[in-house]
Write a structure and sequence with these properties.
single chain, alpha+beta, 3 helices, 18% helix, 3-stranded antiparallel beta sheet
């Protein structure tokens, strides 16, 4: 396994929130005492854990398709990829507020297209969130083929952050975005890939292999 981690242990998206709530906690403690400040310190710990961004080891293998997020597998189903306009298998990872919310590239490849869609904020655990909610799709081209990775906002999430643009090269496991406060990431994979996870599985971004590309010469013509 290789290590791929170019960012601090606390996601930079969380620095303003963490600094703000820590300052409030200190002011309340100085002015009113620890007991009055205790709820604010608890909130500070919550913000700290939400924006944590631990390093991850990247499995070595060009055939691997990695989980783009921490969370639980809530969907594995045949669908139409609405961006590539083809049959696909959708694998969805639901993130609750206690999961790490950094999003990582599932493969090494080149960004072909990035497309943002405004939408609703229904519970991201529901399958209709894939089509109804605010979302941001990234199409990645690889030597094995193309796939689509979609960040989907949730009931509480109100901010999708994506840092790649068309033409960008990304490595497997490289951090490319962040979603604040509960959400999901959908992978639209070619039907010929071999799925390595099951419904209900708990997965980790980068370290969990969710699927494998087929061996050369075994793909349908």
């Amino acid at each position: 396994m290789n290590s791929n981690y170019p960012h601090p242990l606390i996601a930079r998206e969380g620095w303003p929130y963490l600094a703000g709530i820590a300052m409030v906690s200190l002011c309340v403690e100085w002015g009113l005492g620890f007991l009055w400040a205790l709820p604010f310190w608890v909130l500070t710990l919550f913000v700290l854990q939400f924006f944590r961004d631990p390093p991850r080891l990247v499995p070595v293998g060009e055939q691997f398709i990695l989980s783009p997020a921490d969370g639980r597998i809530v969907a594995i189903m045949p669908v139409q990829d609405p961006w590539l306009q083809r049959s696909a298998v959708k694998v969805s990872v639901f993130m609750n507020v206690f999961n790490v919310h950094s999003n990582r590239s599932p493969v090494h490849g080149k960004v072909r297209h990035v497309e943002y869609h405004p939408g609703q904020f229904v519970n991201a655990d529901l399958d209709k969130a894939s089509e109804a909610n605010e979302r941001n799709a990234v199409i990645l081209d690889t030597p094995h083929g193309a796939l689509t990775c979609v960040q989907v906002a949730g009931l509480i999430a109100r901010r999708i952050l994506c840092y790649v643009v068309p033409g960008s090269e990304v490595s497997a496991g490289e951090r490319y975005g962040f979603i604040r406060f509960g959400s999901r990431v959908d992978l639209y994979l070619p039907p010929e890939v071999r799925i390595r996870v099951a419904l209900g599985d708990v997965v980790k971004a980068t370290t969990t292999v969710v699927a494998e590309w087929p061996e050369p010469g075994t793909r349908p013509s």
